[in-house]
């Protein structure tokens, strides 16, 4: 089991072999991430990559009108800052902490140095990037074709997958901002799920009471994302295992 604060709480870092992880160990800096903290501004030069352990970071696109919507969330399964190794160095979206917690950050030159070694870390980061693109594409399709209730179920399930408990500290206003819908729509959808006994909501706390029921109410988008994450980033116990699968 990982310690209360350990890089192994991040699945990408945990998948590295001891030989691959050792050069990074002294370079990783554990940092607290506060709710609402902005890690990246649109168009700004990225300085660090963040490997969340207990925090969740939301990548947002903000329109000229000020309206925004989440394109994808990143938790302990991934890394924030793919533009650093894909060559862009900047991004039109913002990165905002959705759930407070911790992450390990790595200075951009050190990340590039490790990526350019063309070892396991590079293969993991490329696999994760493909998984992230899948999530973005699926979210775009879901937001266009599925009901707010289905979108809320998908979002809740993906968030739960990144948390150690079944409770989220989240206001309806924030959820509405994540999905890019009106607060009234979230209120109505959450009310239906609560009456069905799937969730409970009180003063900014959402607790999932029946996960299986929530999955039943969700559209196929959650299952598609979950399957792709499992295919690209297998849940293994040692870096040796994933080293054999990520080729």
TrEMBL record:
User: Domain HTH crp-type, which positions?
Assistant: 146-212
* Pfam families, alphabetized: cNMP_binding, HTH_Crp_2
Q: Which GO terms describe its cellular component?
A: cytosol
Instruction: Kindly state which keywords UniProt assigns to this record, in alphabetical order.
Output: DNA-binding, Transcription, Transcription regulation
Membrane-crossing segments per the record: none
Q: Name one GO molecular function term.
A: DNA-binding transcription factor activity
Q: Which SMART domains match?
A: cNMP (SM00100), HTH_CRP (SM00419)
Claim: Transcription is one of the keywords in the record? yes
Q: Which InterPro entries match?
A: cNMP-bd_dom, cNMP-bd_dom_sf, Env_Response_Regulators, HTH_CRP, RmlC-like_jellyroll, WH-like_DNA-bd_sf, WH_DNA-bd_sf
The family database entries (Gene3D superfamilies) matched by this protein are listed as:
Jelly Rolls, Winged helix-like DNA-binding domain superfamily/Winged helix DNA-binding domain
Q: Does the keyword DNA-binding apply?
A: yes
The record's listing under PANTHER family reads:
CRP FAMILY TRANSCRIPTIONAL REGULATORY PROTEIN (PTHR24567), HTH-TYPE TRANSCRIPTIONAL REGULATOR ARCR (PTHR24567:SF74)
Q: What is the name attached to this protein's record?
A: Crp/Fnr family transcriptional regulator
The record lists the organism as: Thiobacillus denitrificans
């Amino acid at each position: 089991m990982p310690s209360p604060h350990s890089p192994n709480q991040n699945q990408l870092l945990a998948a590295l072999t001891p030989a691959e992880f050792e050069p990074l160990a002294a370079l990783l800096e554990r940092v607290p991430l506060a709710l609402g903290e902005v890690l990246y501004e649109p168009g700004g030069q990225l300085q660090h990559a963040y490997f969340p352990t207990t925090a969740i970071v939301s990548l947002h696109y903000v329109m000229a009108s000020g309206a925004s919507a989440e394109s994808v969330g990143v938790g302990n399964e991934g890394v924030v800052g793919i533009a650093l190794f894909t060559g862009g160095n900047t991004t039109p979206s913002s990165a905002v902490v959705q759930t407070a917690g911790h992450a390990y950050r790595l200075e951009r030159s050190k990340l590039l140095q490790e990526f350019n070694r063309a070892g396991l870390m590079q293969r993991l980061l490329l696999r994760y990037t493909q998984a992230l693109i899948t999530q973005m594409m699926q979210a775009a399709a879901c937001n266009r074709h599925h009901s707010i209730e289905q979108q809320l179920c998908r979002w809740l399930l993906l968030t739960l997958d990144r948390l150690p408990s079944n409770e989220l500290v989240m206001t309806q206003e924030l959820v509405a901002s994540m999905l890019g819908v009106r607060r009234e729509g979230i209120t109505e959808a959450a009310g239906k799920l609560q009456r069905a006994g799937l969730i409970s909501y009180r003063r900014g706390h959402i607790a999932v009471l029946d996960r299986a029921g929530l999955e039943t109410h969700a559209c196929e988008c959650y299952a598609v994302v979950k399957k792709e994450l499992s295919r690209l980033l297998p849940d293994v116990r040692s870096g040796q295992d994933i080293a054999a699968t990520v080729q």
